[in-house]
Amino acid sequence: MRAKSLSFRLLIAEGLVLAAFFALVAVVLEQGFRESAEQALQERLQVQVYSLLSAAKLNNAGQLIMPSSLHEPRFENPGSGLYGFIQQAKKLVWRSPSAIGLDVIAPPELSAGNSAFVFDKHGRYALHYDVIWQNVAGIEREYIFTVAEDARFVSSQVEQLQETLRFWLLIIGLVLVFIQFAVLRWSLKPLRSIVSDLEAIEQGKKTLLDGHYATELEGLAGNLNAFITHERAHLERYRNNLADLAHSLKTPLAILRGCVESFSENKETVQEQISRMNQIVEYQLQRAAAKGEHKAIKTVDVSVVINKISTSLNKVYIDKGINFEITIPDQCLIYCEEGDLYEIVGNLLDNACKWCQHTVKVSISLNQRKSRRNFSLLLEIEDDGPGIPVGKFNDILKRGIRADENIHGHGIGMTVVYELIGLLGGKLEGGKSATLGGMRWSVYFP
């Protein structure tokens, strides 16, 4: 498993979290067990103190007398770990045989009738109990009974618990890591499915991501499909441009071929066809260079583009004396590539000028839409020409098809317009102009 793998990173992160959690659990359990063991030890020492009190006697002279043997045999064995002491006025008056050579110091704040459980500097747990004793003669003496036990008994229990905890926490940790690994494999299966489908697309076995993916990945799959579709459309556009270029150059080349033998007699014709070929090449190169992005990156003022193109076409068709009726706002912005907008408006206005008798009408309607990109625009271009029969609307959008073969052109202008509007996410509609009687083209920009 590679270090950059998502599964590896998640597994390492979860392993670290589990390790920290188990370490915390072990500390808490150990501390709780230690406190419980110390509480149990304190209760045992309390019982031993009471046994010493019951064995001790105070004679008539006020002297403390202890029996030669005690009920607890550990008091009799040196090194047994259990020690007994009796102090009077801070002086040691008795120690058990097991405590030979040992000393003890009671807490100074201890008062009569009270006890104190402490862990002393010698590494022992000790219970001190202060009592005032009165004999039959009325003599009172204050004594401190102390029973101590080595800490190794508590420590050994804690160490045993630690070993048990380490073993079982390790087993549980390994089981949980294995479970987490299995869960990760199962959870990341949709991602591996997408990767597999992408490889199938790369190898040509599939065209799109068509699997059933998790809800969280449906958006990603949809965006990838949109990207793939857009790139294929872009590639198809380049192929069509090359096909258009080859098709458009066939006629000028045939004419030039026929003029080669009598170049001097056909000089004007040759020059005309060379200019035409140059225009075709420039036109197709501009189309091929157009990005055609599905999502525009800047706004363009449609009114500026329309005014520039109409002014230029007025000069081109000066002999027709075209009357441009332009009804547009001072500023109308849309998200679009400027080159694509010039291509769309230029082709539509050029066709209107070719077919019209005298009048071309241009109008724009704005409808603000807050749900998408803030702008929605309807561009309508109408003329007073003969128009196009309804049955031919779809035909003229095909490559190389013209409404009238007698009109100069290549038969690809409307195809370009239709493709560009589709790439922009817009819509193109054709119909009869209600006011001029000729053709009306409606372009809906997103």
Summarize the model shown.
This protein has helices spanning 6-55, 152-187, 189-202, 215-259, 267-289, 302-316, 338-355, 413-423; strands spanning 57-58, 64-65, 82-88, 91-95, 115-119, 124-134, 140-150, 299-301, 323-327, 333-335, 359-366, 377-383, 427-432, 439-445. With 446 residues, it is of the alpha+beta class.
Q: How much helicity do the residues have?
A: 40-55%
What is the H/E string?
HEEEEEEEHHHHEHEEHEEHEE
How many distinct helices?
A: 8
User: Measured on Cα atoms, how large is the radius of gyration?
Assistant: 51 Å
Name the CATH class of the domain at 292-445.
Alpha Beta
Mean pLDDT over all positions: 79
In CATH terms, what is the architecture of the domain at 292-445? 2-Layer Sandwich
The CATH superfamily title of the domain at 292-445: Histidine kinase-like ATPase, C-terminal domain
Question: Could you please describe the fold and organization of this structure?
Answer:
With 446 residues, the protein is an alpha+beta fold. Among the domains are: 6-157, 2-Layer Sandwich (Beta-Lactamase); 292-445, 2-Layer Sandwich (Heat Shock Protein 90). Helix content is 48%, strand content 18%. The chain has helices spanning 6-55, 152-187, 189-202, 215-259, 267-289, 302-316, 338-355, 413-423; strands at 57-58, 64-65, 82-88, 91-95, 115-119, 124-134, 140-150, 299-301, 323-327, 333-335, 359-366, 377-383, 427-432, 439-445. The strands form four sheets. It has a five-stranded antiparallel sheet. The model is unreliable at 291-296, 370-375 and 400-411 (pLDDT under 50).
